[in-house]
Amino acid sequence: xxxxxxxxxxxxxxxxxxxxxxxxxxxxxxxxxxxxxxxxxxxxxxxxxxxxxxxxxxxxxxxxxxxxxxxxxxxxxxxxxxxxxxxxxxxxxxxxxxxxxxxxxxxxxxxxxxxxxxxxxxxxxxxxxxxxxxxxxxxxxxxxxxxxxxxxxxxxxxxxxxxxxxxxxxxxxxxxxxxxxxxxxxxxxxxxxxxxxxxxxxxxxxxxxxxxxxxxxxxxxxxxxxxxxxxxxxxxxxxxxxxxxxxxxxxxxxxxxxxxxxxxxxxxxxxxxxxxxxxxxxxxxxxxxxxxxxxxxxxxxxxxxxxxxxxxxxxxxxxxxxxxxxxxxxxxxxxxxxxxxxxxxxxxxxxxxxxxxxxxxxxxxxxxxxxxxxxxxxxxxxxxxxxxxxxxxxxxxxxxxxxxxxxxxxxxxxxxxxxxxxxxxxxxxxxxxxxxxxxxxxxxxxxxxxxxxxxxxxxxxxxxxxxxxxxxxxxxxxxxxxxxxxxxxxxxxxxxxxxxxxxxxxxxxxxxxxxxxxxxxxxxxxxxxxxxxxxxxxxxxxxxxxxxxxxxxxxxxxxxxxxxxxxxxxxxxxxxxxxxxxxxxxxxxxxxxxxxxxxxxxxxxxxxxxxxxxxxxxxxxxxxxxxxxxxxxxxxxxxxxxxxxxxxxxxxxxxxxxxxxxxxxxxxxxxxxxxxxxxxxxxxxxxxxxxxxxxxxxxxxxxxxxxxxxxxxxxxxxxxxxxxxxxxxxxxxxxxxxxxxxxxxxxxxxxxxxxxxxxx
Length: 760
Known about the structure:
Oligomer: single chain
Helix content: 40-55%
Mean pLDDT: 84
Number of strands: 26
Number of domains: 4
Distance between the termini: 68 Å
Number of helices: 24
């Protein structure tokens, strides 16, 4: 269980690290008030996106604008005009009248008339300025209205940016008396006529019920506010949004009798100024410019409408969550952002996820706002974005570290491989150098002359044998062209050059002048090594120009027109092997004379058969150079018959076997394999001192193997010179058929001769 939990913690480590750090930092930043202005701006934007509501028919505004002041020809208006205005309004029996005009001092003429109107109008509500101005002043109410308890406060609350987002319901005067604000007092008076009164909910008076609404006083850190002054009884302003505002009539129209009948009956009438010159304009959340800013009388009317609609119709007030819930709200979006960043494979997907969930955050906050809940937007939005960026950055950093580790590991592995390759290359170079030296040694010790020349006849390489035969030193061989000029006359040089470039493989007899002006009879054959190089092979035939050589040469030219050396090789592989067998049998018969005549007779019969076979092979070699053993059967039968002949002349256990399914090879390949097997078998009998010799012919899918193994004394392969006619013959025959010769031997460990040829 603990191991599984540890795996899950490690899997989501980016989220578990990001959420506390980002959320904690943002909460600390939010508590400092640095983001308060942004939250208030976001709240204003949601107000402006709110749909329009139908106009409130319960409120009528009697306004004084610039044209009314011109008609009155004075400001403030006289008490006589004001008393006449109130009297005209009283005739239509409004529910309550709010006077949003200060009357702390008489304005003659008509002051006494106004006093009488005040005394006779119990539903008239006046105003006073309770909160001190910047100059430390307050404005007293009308003494008559103050005496009758018909006074309210005209004070409005402004945020730091000068906007009204909070509304005062009541506050304390200088003498510590509770006083309702104008909008609140008008709403309470109207609702009393509807039978709705204020009912306390708790003992500390911070909550009360008014009809269908429950009011809660604003706290210093509610919503987006941080440490706001919550003196008095404040609520969040949730003013309705009207398309054309309230029903309005000018004071001039009322005084001139142009007020429609029943226009203000049973309604709330608020008298106030909207003239620009009075500078009684305020910005609310709906306001976007100074022209559309409502006047103070309109702000009071908006508060009254908000209270009436909440009490009568249950229109939502603007509520906030408690601080713990707001913290959880921020943490939730931080978790979402962290998960997006931690699970996204690229910054593009992270940005797409942040945009999608950011829109979801804004929509959910707006829907809750319409339902009466003000949720902070900026902090969770920053938590979403910051967590996504941080977790994705951490993920990319982790991936980058992993990539760096992988890259470092690959670099180390590559470095090791390079070091190994360097070592292998050095070893290969050393091996190549050794092979070159070996090849040079072999080429220099081959008892033939070898040259390498280009298409123009320029000689690029000669072996040491040529220098020894012609008497030239190594220094002389560096200027081979001058040597060629001294060795041949002009006509002979052209003949040699034509023969070299023809590269037909035929032999050309050439008499060459040596350094000491003697002549050497040579024979040359030329083959093409590659596209531009040719190889010349020459033999010194001076000492071999005897009758036998001429006879063999004439026989070779008249039969298969192959190289002279092959005739000598075939004669060696036929007559010499037969003579070796005859000698073995003669020696065995000599030991048995007088002891076992029957055994002697058997040996003599074998000698007779070998002699006849040798004679037949000699005749056949002259005729076609193909072994008679192969003429009478396949390669396995020939090897098996050869083994049977050897058994009768030795006590060594000989056996021949075939592995795989036999298939025919070319006559040239079978001929050379038979001769190689014959040579290897003869060498094993003569020199190995073996107890058992095995000949295996292995037929594989793509290649054929001839293997001759013995358990004899073996030898040091490095100490055997390839000048030996038998081993050299096997090597040449293997090269002739494009095969591979392998000799595995060690002292006292026996010898294994393997020839591998391709099936094709």
